[in-house]
Amino acid sequence: MIRKRGRRVPPSSTLKIRLLANKFREVFAELGAPRSGRVDIIDILDCALPGILPDFVLDVVPDSELGEDHAQTFPDRLLIKVKESVYEGARKGLGRDIFTLAHELGHLFLHRNISSYARSNTSTNHKLFEDSEWQADCFAAEFLMPYEEVMMCRSVEEVMKRFGVSHKAAEVRFGKIKK
Question: Which of 1, 76, 91, 165 is deepest in the core (most CB within 10 A)?
Answer without folding.
Answer: 165
